[in-house]
Design a protein that fits this description.
- The chain has 443 residues and is α/β, with parallel strands linked by helices.
- The strands form 4 sheets. It has a 6-stranded parallel beta sheet with strand order 14-13-12-15-16-17, sandwiched between helices. The chain has a 4-stranded mixed beta sheet with strand order 1-4-3-2. A 4-stranded parallel beta sheet has the order 5-6-10-11.
- Helix 3 crosses helix 4.
- The radius of gyration is 23 Å and the shape is globular.
- The protein starts with a helix and ends with a helix.
Length: 443
């Protein structure tokens, strides 16, 4: 999402930006053109040919690294969501090495290389050790829980210098951590919300890397992601959803009740999420059951995830078949219909680096019920544009749900405030441009 939206907005603001990505199997090759750039990349004993193709999106050049042995596969990181490819260390080390070589071969001459998450964690290392000081680096942490951990002997397999395998380098409890490489060697660190930037300095949210983040606190900043307003436009609905005009919302709600077979009455809350522990989804069935039983609540759930959590929602639906609807699938159009027709959306995450769904919901006047963490705390104002609770417990979530149901007098005013709240990619891009300039001017 960020790599697609942020560079496009930066180019609109006059920044000469390019994107480098693996040529995954799902990318349509017939829309790409040859650059004439191809080279060998050696990583330890591995030596592979890389060919660079170019695509263009709204004027943004995107360079695709074609190495079939690495990227021509079903799945980006593994054959299934919970199973990784055995050679991911090599695949993503290749990405960083080939990206740097592409810059050299195509004479892109970047002032700043902006890398993301563990998958590109070795790029700041190689920019520093092999770039001869000609590139400054910014590395963004999207989720500190994913660290790119590999056995220590991977150092030799990738041809990495053993001298950096220590606690102040890339070593993490005896393992090689790609993410830690980015944290240690980048000139600047960012993450995707101001609150998450503070949280990851603590043992509770730092996933063992909080000490590294604290040591670089002055070079770490949180910048909120934005929302693609063209993809999530409440005024594109028929009739449109507009602040202060009830007809669009009433129509969307009735369509939702008809589509999911919900009985009349009650307020509709929705879940559009991965059904996993991190998102707090295990708390929702228990927290909502008494409100469903009383008839005050209708619940629509869209998502897939942990089988045990899915099972708890299936059980809830069987207990309240005309008050709970469950779809274990996802599509943008389905998510839009559900968010547009609901009065509230539940996001009780135990941690949430940024969160996109709550920002989308605000555009539709669907009030977020969120836990005070990460980007949720930065984007929702309690009692003004949504409802916030603190403790990750079913009791606290139930209380927040009850507050929402009982807020009938304030509801329309909250909706109007929510719909006038904007989190645009323009603002995000402007903040990054200021940061790039600052990093570039450092001694």
């Amino acid at each position: 999402m960020v790599v697609g939206a942020l560079p496009l907005e930066q180019r609109k603001l006059g920044i000469n930006t390019s994107v480098i990505s693996p040529l995954y199997r799902h990318i349509r090759r017939n829309e790409l053109k040859k650059t004439g750039c191809h080279f060998q990349v050696r990583l330890g004993a591995h030596c592979n040919q890389v060919t660079v193709y170019q695509g263009v999106s709204e004027g943004l050049p995107i360079y695709f690294l074609d190495c079939p042995a690495a990227y021509d596969r079903d799945g980006l990181y593994g054959p299934r969501p919970t199973v990784d490819f055995h050679d991911n260390a090599w695949r993503f080390a290749l990405l960083s090495r080939a990206a740097l070589e592409t810059c050299r071969r195509l004479r892109l001459h970047p002032d700043i290389v902006h890398s993301h998450d563990w998958q590109a964690g070795l790029l700041p290392l190689w920019c520093r050790t092999e770039g001869n000081g000609w590139i400054r680096t910014v590395h963004t942490i999207h989720n500190l829980g994913y660290q790119g951990m590999f056995p220590a002997d991977t150092m030799e397999e990738l041809g990495l210098d053993r001298q950096i395998f220590h606690p102040d380098g890339v070593e993490f409890w005896g393992w090689l951590s790609f993410l830690k490489s980015g944290l240690v060697f980048a000139d600047q660190l960012t993450t995707v919300s101001p609150t998450y930037a503070e949280e990851i300095c603590t043992p509770r949210f730092g996933n063992g890397l909080d000490g590294v983040i604290r040591s670089r606190r002055h070079e770490t900043v949180g910048i909120l992601n934005g929302v693609d307003t063209s993809a999530w436009d409440p005024q594109a609905l028929v009739p449109p959803i507009q602040a202060g005009i009830p007809s669009g919302r009433q129509a969307a709600e009735q369509r939702l009740r008809d589509e999911f077979g919900l009985e009349p009455g009650g307020q509709i809350a929705c879940v559009v999420s991965r059904l996993v522990h991190q998102k707090g989804m295990d708390m929702v069935p228990v927290a909502s059951s008494t409100l469903l039983e009383s008839g005050a609540l209708r619940l629509v759930v869209v998502g897939t995830g942990d089988p045990s959590i899915e099972a708890s929602f299936h059980l809830l639906q069987s207990s309240f078949p005309t008050r709970v609807a469950l779809r274990t699938e996802y599509s943008t159009s389905l998510a839009q219909r559900v968010i547009a027709g609901s009065s509230a959306i539940l996001m009780p995450s135990r941690y949430e680096p940024c969160g996109l769904t709550q920002m989308i919901a605000l555009r539709y006047g669907t009030l977020p019920i969120v836990r005070r963490t990460g980007g949720l705390a930065d984007t929702v104002r309690d009692g003004e544009t949504g409802f916030i609770f603190d403790d990750p417990t079913t009791t606290a979530l139930h209380s927040a749900l009850a507050r929402w149901i009982n807020a009938t007098k304030a509801y329309e005013a909250m909706r109007r405030r929510a719909m006038t709240t904007t989190y645009s990619w323009t603002s995000t891009a402007e903040q990054y441009i200021r940061l790039y300039n600052e990093v570039h001017e450092r001694e």
